[in-house]
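Quick question, first post here. What does this chain look like in 3D?
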Amino acid sequence: MRSDLIFYGELLVTIKDRIHLAQTRAALSANAEMIAMYWDIGRIIHQRQKEKGWGAGVIPRLAVDLKNELPEVKGFSERNIKRMLRFYREYPDLSPVATHLVPQTAALLNVPGEQSHPIVPQAAAQFQNQSQVSISSQLAFGIPWFHHVILIEKVKGLPIRRWYMQQTIQQGWSRDTLAAMVKSHAHERQGKATSNFGSSLPSPQSEMARQLLKDPYLFDFLTLEEPFHERELETGLVRHLEKFLLELGSGFAFVGRQYHLEVSDRDFHLDLLFYHLKLRCFIVIELKKGDFRPEYAGKMNFYCSAVDDLLRNETDQPTIGLILCQTKDRILAEYTLRDIHKPIGISDYELTRALPERLKSSLPTVEEIEAELGGELG
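> Answer (accepted):
Ran it through. Tokens below.
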């Protein structure tokens, strides 16, 4: 009886996975078809304008007539039609045959049962030879329309747009998340941490780990007033765990705060412990106030060894350590990590600074502003 229940449970999970795969493919297919349609409409308008000498005035008329002729169809406002035209002009070499792109896009999303996506080159390397970078149909038809709107309006360089497209597909960024990442210049920070991954991790794990870390990390959802303690920073990050995980990136699973380890009858506590689902390893994060010091790496080396011995499963990859400081001297950090065998990264973090009391006292209160406005209106 028990074996039958186990087999049935496995059957249920298998069928649920297949249903989810079908749903994902249907959503990807519908999105790809819509993006292809918008691209093609932009192409048609562009060609008619070129052939007939029509100006921009044709678009308002087209928007009105489409609304009258197809009142049930949404998305063809004057503003959006102009976006379609710009979309075509930005990417004139795309192929409008979108339905063939669904399996590849599913692979980018790491859908179960599909081929996994190869490692994306490190962000900085992608931008070195911009003349050879293009936007493929696979990428363009793999993200939602309003993601394209953000990228076209906010990001000028084609290589940088390509990077954001790849990250959107791989990490499942929403429109708001993409906008926040663009605003914070995520492409300039990704893969920039100082680390010894090249010598301490095998390939391709080392490259994946290198891409994982940023420098600096932006904790702009926190406001800490000097002087603050490391424990206050830790408490704030855990309190805003969802935003913290978003800044860390996809794949991080929170294990614990002040995670207890016992080594040789002595107690030790890790500031923050995570498990990364794609790298298949534990990640220890230590938070430090002020400048980086070489002795921090020795302590992190010990923590990584302890986690490997006490928590790591035989199928897990080596534990990675990440030291977050307010500032660091990169040369000092590189020297520190040179002969350390455990994989460790070092990054800065930035906070939203609280206003000093002397500055606060110089600002008008809400009551004073209301009184001033009341006097002017009166």
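The radius of gyration is 26 Å.
Residues 304 and 319 are 6 Å apart (CA to CA).
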